Amino acid sequence: NRRFLLASRPHGAPTPDNFKLEQSPVPAPAAGQVLLRTVYLSLDPYMRGRMSDAPSYAAHVEIGEVMVGGTVARVEASEHADYKPGDLVLSYSGWQDYALSDGKGLTKLDAKLGKPSYALGVLGMPGFTAYMGLLDIGQPQAGETVVVAAATGAVGSVVGQIAKLKGCRVVGIAGGADKCKYAVEELGFDACIDHRAADFPQQLAAACDKGIDVYFENVGGAVFNAVLPLLNLRARVPVCGLIANYNAAGKPEGPDHLPGLMGKLLVRRIKMQGFIIFDYYHRYQEFFKDMSGWLAAGKIKFREDIVDGLENAPQAFIGLLEGKNFGKLVIRAGDE
Ligand code: NDP
User: Fold this and answer.
1) CA-to-CA distance for 120 and 305, rounded, in angstroms?
2) Contact 226 CB / ligand 1 (< 6 Å)
3) Domains and CATH numbers, the chain
4) Are 35 and 29 in contact (CB under 8 A)?
5) What is the mean pLDDT of residues 305-313?
6) Is the CB of residue 39 below 6 angstroms from any atom belonging to ligand 1?
7) How far is residue 225 from each of residues 45, 67, 204, 257, 310, measured CA to CA in Å?
8) Is pLDDT at 251 greater than 90 in this prediction?
9) 19 CA distance to ligand 1 centroid (A)?
């Protein structure tokens, strides 16, 4: 059983030596337990927070503990009445080949659902985050302009496509020409701007000639600075993530933007609301019904960036925080 432990806490960007690959015997299930073999491991930006000991909304991983993470796993052996070998489940086994479970928190996956890995993406936590943040907090109306950053990623790609389904004009922000081309040509966004371009703020303003009514915040930093002057009266800003800050080792240099932000919120009556998707799971069925319908009808596309081999998880995760992934980042740890 290979497993990745947190070896040390990163200072700034994570490095490979923050992780330790350990070999241990494959455990055997006791009465009431199942043995799970990881098939897919989801890699998500929130894991950077778990590696740190700064206070957060969830407990951090202790040094020497297995890195946490959502997984799709196959039941290898079962001493649990509800599970039999071969069942595919959604679990939270973390960065390891095998894990034991008492069945709590496991969800059986329906083979008819299409790709099992979608349970970690468009039909799982990131898709659900996009749906709730956009519809519940953003409340987009037909004809409005919706802007989303990390626009080709797991959350952003779904936000933009749902906004299109609701009749909005959608402007994506992404890193590089290939991602922007994909957002427009494949995802159907009206425009997509490269945040690495020197004149990014000017390009964004030109693409949002009627201002911005909903800004779905995934990034923060320089991207938010370009968005803020464009926010319209009564704009809504669901604050989902601030990935540009996750590797920050201290406060950013430069001018203090806080007074400008507060002034803008006040005079433009802007609603900015943070959210954590955990709080919404009572509404998962509502999401699942809509999203599985849209997928079946071909109305939502979802790109995955699948990396083979558990041993590649640290490097792939480090890349996620630098924009190296193109689509939902998933490790294929075993055969489906
Ligand atoms: P993505 O698939 O979008 O991957 C992360 C992307 O972020 C990268 O590909 C890159 O895209 C972009 N990025 C990374 N660093 C920077 C930077 N410094 N400046 C600008 N862009 C950057 O990840 P997810 O869809 O899983 O997550 C998107 C956001 O949603 C994250 O902030 C995450 O923390 C948040 N989230 C929040 C949840 C909640 O409950 N509130 C739940 C799930 C996710 P590009 O190359 O296009 O810049």
Assistant:
1) 12
2) no
3) 2-121+303-332 (3.90.180.10), 125-278 (3.40.50.720)
4) yes
5) 98
6) no
7) 21, 33, 11, 8, 37
8) no
9) 21
Alpha carbon of 191 to ligand 1 centroid (Å): 19
Neighbours of 190 (CB within 10 A): 18
Return the pLDDT at 257.
Answer: 87
What single DSSP character describes residue 138?
Answer: I
Cβ(183) – ligand 1 distance below 6 Å: no
Mean pLDDT value of segment 17-30:
97
Q: Residue 243 CA: which ligand 1 atom is closest?
A: 32
The confidence band for 113, taking pLDDT boundaries of 50, 70 and 90, is confident
Task: Return d(Cα 287, Cα 328) in angstroms, integer.
Answer: 19
Measure 151 CA to ligand 1 centroid, in angstroms. Answer: 9
Tens digit of pLDDT for each residue in 154-207? Answer: 999 999 999 999 999 999 999 999 999 999 999 999 999 999 999 999 999 999
Whether the pLDDT of residue 254 is over 90: the answer is no
Q: Which residues pair with 86 in a beta bridge?
A: none
What whole-number distance in Å separates Cα of residue 300 and Cα of residue 292?
9
Mode of pairing for the β-strands spanning 71-78 and 88-91: antiparallel
CA–CA gap between residue 96 and residue 222 (Å, rounded): 36
CA 240 to ligand 1: nearest atom? 41
